[in-house]
Amino acid sequence: MSETSTRSRPTERTSERKTDEKVEHEETKTDVCPECGGGLVTDSERGETVCGECGLVVEEDEIDPGPEWRAFDAAEKDQKSRVGAPTTNMMHDKGLSTNIGWQDKDAYGNSLSSRQREKMQRLRTWNERFRTRDSKERNLKQALGEIDRMASALGLPENVRETASVIYRRALDENLLPGRSIEGVATASLYAAARQAGNPRSLDEIERVSRIGRMELTRTYRYVVRELNLEVQPADPESYVPRFVSDLELNEEVSRRARELVDSARKEGVLSGKSPVGIAAAAIYAAALLSNERVTQGEISEVADISEVTIRNRYKELLEAKSVDGTRVQ
Fold first, then answer.
1. Residue 249: φ, ψ to 5°
2. Distance (Å, whole) CA 283 – CA 262
3. Buried b (16+ CB within 10 A) or exposed e, 146-160
4. pTM of the full predicted structure?
5. Which of 224-228, 230-234, 267-271 has the lowest mean pLDDT?
6. Contact between residue 300 and residue 258 where contact means Cβ atoms under 8 Å apart
C-alpha cells in the first residue's frame, strides 16, 4: 500500500508543476512590454506583436484569424463571408442537406471504375430517398421544382421565386391542397407572388408555361388568396411598361412618355375595368409615335400577347384622356 502511494507522488508533482507553468505563462501574456513597460502594437502584415516604445518583438509568426479578403460595406461583407450556403425556401429542405455530385470522378479528377460508379449511383439513390422522408416533403419538392421551372421560363427574379415558395408552404401547412393539383397551387402561388413583388405576368403568359388550364388557374388563385388572406393589389399598367419597352428595344424616352400617359389616364378614370396589359401596350404605341420611334401595332401585339384591336381601342382612350405636349397624333 505504501509502495503504491510512493510511486504516485512524482506524477502528482509533475502535473502540479505543469499547471503552475501554464498559469504563469497566461499571466505573462499582457499588453505591456516586458522590457520597458510600453504599450504593445500588433502588426497584422508581418504577424508580429512589437512594443511601441522600444521596438521589442514580443511575438512573431502569429496566425491571422481574419479573412483574406476586404469588404468596404456591410452588404459586401455578408456576401463574401464563407459560412456555408444560406438557407432558402426555394428548396424543400431549405438547402441544409448535402448532395452527391453527378460527375463520376475522384478528388484528383480521375474517372471512377465501373464498380465505383455503380456504388456512387446507389448512394445518390439512397441520398434522394433520405432527403424526402414523407409524402409532405415529396409534395414540396415537386411543387418547388415546378415553381422554379415556370419562374425561369418567365424570367422572374429570385425574390419572386422565394415569395412563391413561402406562399406554397403556407398553403401546404394550412391543408389547402386536398382536392387540388400540386401544379395548380404552385402556379397560383407564383402568379400571386409576381403581383405582390410588382413584377406581374399576365394570365396568358402564366398559362403558356403552366401545365394547367386557365380556368383551373383562376379558380385556384382566388381560393389561395382568400384562404391565406394575401394582400394582392390590382396590377398596375406601369409595371408592364419597362419589360415591354425592353423587349421592343425602344429608348428611355418612350418608357417615360408611356408612364405619363398611363398616369394621366388613371387621373381621368380611364383605367377602371380595362386590362392593364392592353393599357400598357397602347401607352407604349402612343409614346413611340410621339417620340418618332418606328414600331408597329403588330410588334407590340406580339410582345404583349394581346390583339391589335385592343391596342387601337385603348390607344384612342389614352389620347382622349390627355393630349401630350399639345400634339395631335393621327
1. 60, 45
2. 7
3. bbbebbeebebeeeb
4. 0.63
5. 267-271
6. no
165: amino acid identity, one letter: S
pLDDT tier, 49 (very low <50, low <70, confident <90, very high otherwise): confident
Question: Per-residue confidence at 30, pLDDT binned at 50, 70, 90?
Answer: low
More confident residue, 29 or 204: 204
CATH number, domain 22-60, options 3.10.490.10, 3.90.1440.10, 2.60.40.290, 2.20.25.10: 2.20.25.10
Domain 135-228 -> CATH class: mainly alpha
Kind and range of the H or E element at 231?
none
The answer to the question of whether 33 is labelled as a binding residue is: yes
Residue intervals in the chain for CATH 1.10.472.10: 135-228, 237-326
Is residue 36 marked as binding?
A: yes
Is 54 annotated as a binding-site member?
yes
CATH architecture of 237-326: Orthogonal Bundle (1.10)
Q: Would you tell me how many other CB atoms lie within 10 Å of the CB of residue 181?
A: 14
